[in-house]
User: Fold these one by one.
Assistant:
Number 1:
Amino acid sequence: MQLKLKIWRQKNGKSKGKFETYYLNDVSPDMSFLEMMDVLNENLMLKGIDPIAFDHDCREGICGSCSMFINGEAHGPDRLVTTCQLHMRKFKDGDTIYVEPFRAKPFPVIKDLVVDRSSFDRIQHAGGFISVNTSGNTQDANATPIEKEDADNAFDAATCIGCGACVATCKNASAMLFVSAKVSQYSLLPQGKVEATNRVLNMVKQMDEEGFGNCTNTGACEVECPKGISLENIARMNREYLLANLKG
Amino acid sequence: MLYSTIFKKASMAISGLFLIIFLLQHFAINITSVFSGNLFNQLSHFMGTNPLVQFVLQPILIFGVIFHFVMGFVLDIINKRARGRRYKIYKGNSNASWVSRNMIISGSTVLAFLVLHFYDFWIPEMDYKYVKFLPENPDRYFEELVHKFEDITRVVLYVISFFFLALHLSHGFASSFQTMGFNNKYTVLVKSFGKLYAFGIPFGFAFIAIYHYLNH
Ligand code: HEM
Ligand code: SF4
Ligand code: FES
């Protein structure tokens, strides 16, 4: 297939940036989107043009690095996939494809399509952990019985890969889906309940300090999330947060 | 804590739910005007002269409305800023409904309506009671109401506003439950009931306006 690509180019965080147009022939429908980008970059390098910078690592939908906003949607038109799992067969011969970086104040552009998502790391550091005594008397996690439903919900929440598609998609650039998944994956389990109150308070505080917007429950995040993280997590986090404040 | 995003959202939801309850009460009284002018007069007279309603509930209501829309605008500005540079292509429609993405538009329409509505009923009422101190006539309310709806422009404006109110509530009702942390097996019920309320109540208000226009 033949494609016209309009790709955001930006030298660094300070420069203005603009769309550049590239043409690519002989794109196989079986390629992943990132493979298509690789081919484009090879072509560019042969021409002596600086290749397009984009994040990628696992290329199998588990690391969450491949952030691209493709034709107006995070990770492109497919559902429950990351950009590395998106195939070119989702596009048609002759299509024009716009590729932009994830846009949010707390995700500043580093170069081209690469954005700095360390705001997510700082939210994790604020409470996304459990404190365990590792001096040798650690209790076996399996010794604590956990209800199946809770275990399932915690596991579902834990599948969040921190990709940031929820923020990129949300019209308010809100990080509630991500943060609520991280809060839920611990607070649903007995091991995580110990620090649950401080966790939710600290993580939400950090989320606000990073400058993410306010959730308005449009539900766009849930649709675009490659891992299908549910809005129920946001409700759970709100519940925990409001109760935590009542407790003081 | 009061400045946290979640708390601001919760205050939006609580003020919204409060307005939803108020709207039900407002509707319950207004609908009586369709079948009994007398009953409508009695109820309006009670609401208009009861000190608890006038000096406690009414200020709370006005505070609630102002709080809700001011906070709505503030949050909308913060949220637009949180994006930074805007996307060239943004397919909002592909993952969220128009209504949920444009609460500020439906809300602003309702606000414009409220200005008209206050000018129509509330200001004359305040003028009558607390500025001119005219003697109370318990039978005046029904006539005043019918008189307002003789004007087709007003009826059309009201009906359009009720439509936007319905849109606002069709997202707002269920949304406020989600905000307050209520999302479980009953959420399907909340959503269905929310849609029923969101379209039913504004439709009822529109019906009242049209009814009086046709029967004056
Ligand atoms: C006076 C003009 C109004 C404006 C400018 C306004 C604006 C807004 C805005 C911007 C939101 C936030 C969007 C969101 O969170 O999804 C909202 C939510 C809401 N509004 Fe309004 N609104 C107005 C009137 C009303 C009225 C009259 C009612 C009820 C009768 C109402 C009920 C709600 C509810 C229930 C919510 C959802 C709260 C939540 O999502 O947690 N609003 N409004
Ligand atoms: S909630 Fe979903 S979209 Fe958001 S960071 Fe986690 S995996 Fe990505
Ligand atoms: S490269 Fe790891 S999820 Fe796409």
Number 2:
Amino acid sequence: MNFIVALSCEAKPIINELRLTKQFSPTPFEVFRNDFHQLVVTGIGKVAAAAATGFLLGSSTRKQEVQTYLNVGIAGHGTLQTNTAFIANSISDDQDKAIFYPPQIIDSDFELSRLCTCSHPNQKYEKGLGFDMEAHAFYSIASRSCTRELIQVVKVVSDNEGQSFEYIRPTTVTEYICNHLPSILAFAQELDALAKEISPDLETLGLQERARKLHPFSQSQIFQLDRLINHSRSFDLEEKHLIELIEKSNSPKEAIYNLNTFIDQSRILS
Amino acid sequence: MIKNIYFEEKVENHNRAQEFFSRFPKAAKISCNHFKEVFNPSGQNFRLQKKNPSLILASQDGKKVHPIPSKYGVGGTSNFYFSHLFNCLYDCRYCFLQGMFPSAHYVLFINYEEFWDDIRNKADEVSNSPSWFFSGYDCDSLALESTTGFVDFFLPKFSKFPHAFLELRTKSVNTRVLKNREPLPNVIVAFSFTPEEISRQLEHGVPSVSARIKAMHQLATLGWYVGIRIDPVIDCQEFESRYALLFHQLFDKLPQDSLHSVSLGAFRMPYGFFKKMDKLYPEENLFAGKLTKNKNSVSYELEIETKRLDSCRSMLLEYISSEKLFTCEMS
Ligand code: SF4
């Protein structure tokens, strides 16, 4: 999971709970990692959020797997009480016509709400609407390279009509995020499980990698080879046989032919 | 359970939209200008969305009734389809919807009255011969009936329009809406089938073959015309014996005079759709079968396709006359 968080006080509970460690290689943003997660502290505002999301997209260490992105932070809201967590099911922007509708696949206990990303702190609390300063920019960048179901925004209400944002303290922000941390992390875990379901099978990728090294395959032959290996996995054909068959072939062309002939016998639904 | 209802601003006050809002009071309601803002963006994953689709309420403003390719039909010469709903409750792995639509959300066009106007106009245009209207092209006609009320709305209309025929194509056993009323001679309830073993592998969430046969027999006994759609024909091990058993189960006890038609359809789809489906389910055996690309379409290799269709045809002709048997080709 990739967490995108504007402020250190919002990030702190996640960093502590997941035992993320700060990366000291020179990076334009503060980045924290463990083996499965990374978190970037973006700073406030759309430009910072967009830049940090782009940075995180480019710096992923698990390129073969489908990635998930979660923007966590505080927001103002026109209806919800402070300390209420919600998922943004529509994200608009005060200066951009595009609206994002993150598809909601997971049944969580969070409230669902519309969210508007503003260029400046918002003082007018429109009914039913949340306000933040990053989500739209984050979504616009993340959705360019990741499937939309796996990009989500969770916000905790920090201010509303009755409680102005001017009085929010960093400790209160940390406390709000802490209060919802178990649900936020459970949600993140479910997103990761969904990602796993559509990630390429690592064993298949490994087998394709091994097979490619056995002959000097051309680019289009690699495409055919990968596809044949994929099919062989669909029909549960033995890996050992496939590799032997490719090894015994005298040329890349012959390897493709032999593999095809071998798999052909199985190409029927049981 | 629907958790999110998106709606086009222009339909917010439509009675049908209001009914939905009160029927799903806990669902979050999200407005949009046009359903395509939610449905069409690139970078959505149909497979993931299928786990929990949302509902989008919209109004179909453009053309609502479309002509159907000439080789598709069950006896009529003027054939049309209409889509009041995009997407389906079920999840058949061979379904072209997953290749055609960017999203698995249900889009329900709630301006039924305008659909009916267009259907009636089309039927009047060709009043010298009966016109056929196929629903269930982009969805299953009955599976979501308890939510959409679509059949409940259209049957009374068709009852007053005997020269217009309606085919409801379905894999659902949710036939209460039909059982509750007098059968109509111009409405055909067409059930689609593959053999049980194939259904179990490929038709996820679909009622069992035996449950569908039972539902079909019940409707036939009540006097409804039924159709049988063997579409798509799927190549499989023990093909002959599986299809032979299916046909036996289908026709055994089916009152012959209630059978309107049987149609056969090959597994065939545009290459672009196939590519997308294959990418969504790279582990799927069906897509690793003996398929071939011909021009812009993917189908079984010609020899297999011909052999399987011929074999089904000759088995079917043991039960029905050739006038009732049709071979449908979508492309
Ligand atoms: S029942 Fe029909 S529309 Fe529904 S998923 Fe299956 S093939 Fe597609």
